[in-house]
Amino acid sequence: MNFDYSEEQQLLAQSIRQFLTKEYTFAARQAVIESDQGYSEQVWATFAEMGLLGLPFASEVGGFGGNAVDLMPVMEAIGDGLIVEPYLASVGLGGQFIARGGSQAQKQEILPALVTGQCKLAFAQTEREARYNLAHVACRAEKTENGYTLEGEKCVVLHAPCADKLIVSARTAGQTTAADGISLFVVDRSAPGVTLTSYRTIDNLRAADMRFAGTVVPAEALIGQEGQALPLIEAVVDYATALVCAEAIGAMQFANDTTLEYLKTRKQFGVPIGSFQALQHRMVDMTIICEQAKSMACLACVKADSADADERRRIISAAKIHIADACRHISQEAVQLHGGMGMTEELKVSHTFRRLTMIAQTFGDADHHLERFAACG
Amino acid sequence: MDLNYSPEETVFRDEVRAWLKDNLPDELRDKVVNYEELTKEDLLRWQKITAERGWGAPDWPEEWGGTNWTIVQRHIFEEECGHAGCPPRIPFGVSMCAPVLHQFGTQEQKQRFLPDMYNGDVFWCQGYSEPGSGSDLASLKTSAVREGDSYVVNGQKIWTTWAQYADWIFCLVRTSTDFPKRQQGISFLLMDMNTPGISVRPLMLMDGGHEVNEVFFDDVRVPAENLVHEENDGWTVAKYLLGHERLGTGNTGASKREVLRLKELAAQQHKNGKPLIDDPRFRDRLSRVEVELMALEITNLRFLDQMRGGRAPGAEVSLLKIRGTEIQQALTELMLEAVGPFAQPFRSLHATDFDQHTASIAPRYCNYRKTSIYAGSNEIQRNIISKASLGL
Ligand SMILES: Cc1cc2nc3c(=O)[nH]c(=O)nc-3n(C[C@H](O)[C@H](O)[C@H](O)COP(=O)(O)OP(=O)(O)OC[C@H]3O[C@@H](n4cnc5c(N)ncnc54)[C@H](O)[C@@H]3O)c2cc1C
Ligand SMILES: Cc1cc2nc3c(=O)[nH]c(=O)nc-3n(C[C@H](O)[C@H](O)[C@H](O)COP(=O)(O)OP(=O)(O)OC[C@H]3O[C@@H](n4cnc5c(N)ncnc54)[C@H](O)[C@@H]3O)c2cc1C
User: Fold this and answer.
1) DSSP letter string over A280-337?
2) Does any ligand 2 atom lie closer than 6 A to the CB of residue B37?
3) One domain, residues B62 and B153
4) Global pTM exceeds 0.80
5) Looking at the CA of A276, which ligand is closest?
């Protein structure tokens, strides 16, 4: 057993950290989130140069063949720096569908462009009444002579406004929640019949609700076998869940570090507030929770690609339950221990609070994963 | 022991309820229920409406417009207002500055300030906290130096709620540093916000709202007649006021309304094809908060009953503040979880259709973190119980 990062992983972690402290400062990030696009092309290009966009993909498409553990340092840095660029959506979700289920042609068309930063992806899955159920797909794809016609709505599609291509789940057969009959398609965001209502999210990402109205796609847009996409969707979402757990670790570690610093420097009653035992114990609990969460994130990333799907499900859900609770606890305590300052837009900790609040519910909240965990026996 | 309202109290409750039904404007109610920002006009308008009915300040002395209600009647009124979705009473004038004036003010001060507060003509704010003096309020530094028949004020306040709306501010200022204890040498001073030298800078909170401000004082000349109570003995006033401030923080009426709203919301959301409210995991958590709220309401009544004999509120108001705010926060958290993925959207980038209903829930959750920080943080409230009630 060995919990250490390899030498390459450590070097990568170091170079990302350098990038964060030099270029992705809080002030620089503020400018990015207030810009029209809501992300920075320049940062995206730097990610490509650093090799981050190719990390998990095969060498044939320009990647480095990394596993989820290789991505952990990147995700932690994203959590630490609250990076708003569409890394998880493109590399952790969109690219994974192509790499795992795509045809040779799809891989050749999309992955090299993704790796070099020329193509961004988003995953259009959630629907109005689906909540976190991945099998709930009402959006329909009707087979035509040359391909398919998409009809339906998707909600809260993260990073859709900047995506070049969307991976869209749609039903080619069966009732709304049937496991069979779900298919995946690659759709140009600018294709006719695709409309977006774009917005900013509470954690300062961009997202959109989408409508597909008679959107025509060719037969080659289908990913994998028609009607058989659910296992692939589940596997990729589990993989992305492991990654978002790693992101949470970076954000929680920042929240703890900055709160500890505040306890040592903020004075009331003539002494640092960290000298009050009531607060010391709170900080200790935050530290314990973060350590436990780190362990669960490691476990999730190590097992994210487990060949045993049951084992994978059980562990990913266990990690997400733990991380969701940890996100809530640490984010709330970090704000509370900062007093009024913790409430302000101008302090980074309030942004970390919002991101952690959302991560707790991303790809399923604790209740959802408790149900799934229990179902694994 | 009889935990029921008396027949007279029930009649009173029905009267209040009927009046609210007829007099609370829909626009105001909708704003409150949908968590929209209230304007100065909204807040003053509601004060005016209650004033016209003679209910503008129930707990004031009768000669100034008080209703002479029993403690139970006052509680019923607050509960019904919260439940109906009334705008919050602007606390700073009617509920905070006024009790101080009743207790410590001169006849001239009462005459000058109370009627305008009652009638909703003047908007007040509270200038206590400073950047270096939050929980440790007595360390405040904003200075007021007596020059002839004026005080000259210099310094800064922070977290001043609605200072951008305010016509007047009541402040704690330091008039002397010559005393051995920091609580001495503080004075309670009223200032017209239009006085030259006062400036207001907004502080944005993480929900995107503008409710708090920094207020700067640069050689502000304040007439000495605006001093309330004795110079250097303002701490006595401050402590008196803090008791009153905390009395209103339980907010059980508003929380009951939020429980109903949460139930409606959870009935509209779906989980595995069924309404979320039928999901035992979710329902259990909702029920627990409901039970907590029930316990708080009865505790509140029990304390009020003890105060019927005229006893001043003690450390028990700290309990109401802690539990009341924890419940409010728990409710915003359940709302956030209830709407699932729809908690994330925040602000539309174009003026197209956008679900404002669910988009207001996460900002509200963020905003309500304030309740365990302001009006004496919940840590400070626990310190108070520990010292004052338990003798630790
Ligand atoms: C089953 C059992 C087995 C034990 N075995 C051993 C053993 O093998 N060897 C040995 O040497 N001792 C042993 N102990 C003794 C144990 O170490 C003491 O009970 C322990 O140190 C607490 O001391 P105390 O009982 O005097 O309680 P106190 O020290 O009087 O503490 C009372 C309470 O106050 C709290 N408290 C005390 N100081 C602080 C502080 N500074 N901040 C916050 N809270 C505080 C404590 O946590 C506790 O809740 C054992 C005790 C038990 C119950
Ligand atoms: C939205 C909002 C509105 C407000 N409105 C007003 C207003 O209108 N007028 C006004 O004057 N003020 C207002 N306040 C200020 C509020 O009263 C202060 O924020 C509060 O007193 C805490 O002070 P602080 O923010 O400086 O935090 P600090 O006092 O620095 O506290 C930081 C942390 O340390 C803890 N702490 C401090 N001392 C102790 C101790 N002895 N033991 C244990 N823990 C301790 C606190 O509980 C907190 O968790 C408002 C605040 C907010 C957030």
Assistant:
1) HHHHHHHHHHHHHHHHHHHHHHHHTT-S-HHHHHHHHHHHHHHHHHHHHHHHHHHHHH
2) no
3) no
4) yes
5) 2
d(CA A88, CA A110): 16
Per-domain residue ranges of chain A: 7-119, 122-228, 231-375
pLDDT in tens, B245-265: 656 556 888 899 999 999 999
Q: How far is CA A294 from the centre of its chain?
A: 17
Q: Is B160 in the pocket of ligand 2 (CB under 6 A)?
A: yes
Rounded to an integer, the average pLDDT of B174-188 is 97
Q: Is B15 designated active site?
A: no
What is the fold, at CATH topology level, of the domain defined by A7-119? Butyryl-Coa Dehydrogenase, subunit A; domain 1 (1.10.540)
Q: Which residues does chain A have within 8 Å of residue B35's beta carbon, measured at their own beta carbons?
A: none
Q: Which is nearest to A296 in space by CA: A142, A144, A72, A131?
A: A72
Tokens 């006062």 locate to B198
CATH of domain A231-375: 1.20.140.10
The larger pLDDT score, comparing residue B307 to residue A187, is at A187
**CATH architecture classification, A122-228:** Beta Barrel (2.40)
- Ligand 2 within 6 A of CB of B370: yes
Would residue B21 count as lying in a domain? yes
ipTM: 0.97
Mean pLDDT of B264-279: 95
Query: Given CB atoms, is A133 within the 8 Å cutoff of chain B?
Result: yes
Averaged confidence pLDDT in chain A:
97
In terms of domains, do B264 and B220 share one? no
How many angstroms does the Cα of residue B319 sit away from the middle of ligand 1?
30
| Residue B386 forms contact with A (CB below 8 Å) | no
